[in-house]
Amino acid sequence: MLEVFNLNERESYQRYTDIDMKVFIRFRNWGGKWRDWLEYPDANHANLKRTEWTSTGTTGVYYKRQGDIVSLRIEIRDITGNVSLGRIPSELTPIQGNAAMLNVPVFEGGSSNDRHLQINPDGGMTLLATNDKYVGTQINWSI
Asked: Which of 69, 80, 83, 99 has the most CB atoms at less than 10 Å from its CB?
């Protein structure tokens, strides 16, 4: 379906909706020339998805999504060994269908005690070989 809207005598735009309900728009400038068609994102577009801070199931560990960016907030203390950090939805993992390893800084001046975060394809997360240092950080990645 093609619709034409006249904003005034010199400006107008067209809106086209295809059979899959995708919407495209284009504008005509004051010189009468039409611009290229642009896809108009619908409410389900990945870059419009957003969640608030949500617990992973482990105290002090939360995630949130803003478009295609996922943030993981970690605040843990006095834990040693491998530590489960809970789970995020599998569609939010850094590499879909594969495990990922991310660096996690600990709260001190050097990087010799930094740790690694393993994120499995199912969304399960483990902080590897932790020591009793304070880990208070936020990690971000694109999906």
From this structure: 83
d(CA 138, CA 3): 46
Q: What is the pLDDT of residues 84-138, one digit of tens each?
A: 999 999 999 999 999 999 999 887 777 777 889 999 999 999 999 877 778 899 9
**pLDDT bracket for residue 28 (50, 70, 90):** confident
Residues 6+ apart with CB under 8 A from 122: 87, 90
Look at the alpha carbons of 73, 79, 80, 83 in this order and tell me if their dihedral is positive or negative.
Answer: negative
Of the candidates 84, 98, 88, 46, which has an alpha carbon nearest to the alpha carbon of residue 64? 88
> Greatest CA separation found in the chain?
71
Residue 40 — very low, low, confident or very high, per pLDDT cuts 50/70/90?
confident
CA angle 30–34–35, rounded 5-degree value: 105
Measure the CA–CA gap between 33 and 26, rounded to whole angstroms. Answer: 10
